[in-house]
Amino acid sequence: MELKGSCHCEKVRFTVKSHTPNPVISICRKTDGGGGYAINIMGVYKTLKVTGEQHLRYAKTYQAIRDKASGELCGNIRYFCGECGCHLYAYDRKYADYVYPLASSIDTALPPVDPVTETYHIKIEDKAKWVVLPDGAEHVFDDYPDVSLEDWHIKNKQLVE
């Protein structure tokens, strides 16, 4: 499925193909969205096409600190629009075949998921106190889950061409 995305000011636009378009994993509130949570989708990196790339200068990227005690950085490099500051996607060389757009940057209608039975709520140990999980949430993890985005889509027969 081809996904189209953009920042708020629309100076940066992108397309990417995804066989895993369901937004099912919510993560890291401070480094990905600054809100209660952020949701990433997985796209195929070699299909990523960006227009307005001049607004994605290196100074508009961020690598989170995975471990504050050691200063170890997270592998994800997060890309932001240099004009409006919108977080667009993340890329990690460790998973070089994929790119991870923020669901909120996608303009294409995405397949719906049930927040109780299908959504994986991860990094719960870091969630804001005011964030309330849906009653009966089935997949809750203090850290990262035992399943990847791709594995979830395979298990739930949700892979898309």
Automatic annotation (TrEMBL):
SUPFAM superfamilies: Mss4-like (SSF51316). Belongs to the Gfa family. It comes from the Eukaryota. Keywords: Lyase, Metal-binding, Zinc. InterPro entries: CENP-V/GFA, Mss4-like_sf. GO terms for molecular function: carbon-sulfur lyase activity; metal ion binding. Signal peptide: none annotated. The keyword Lyase applies. Residues 3-120 form the CENP-V/GFA domain. Coiled coil: none annotated. This is CENP-V/GFA domain-containing protein.
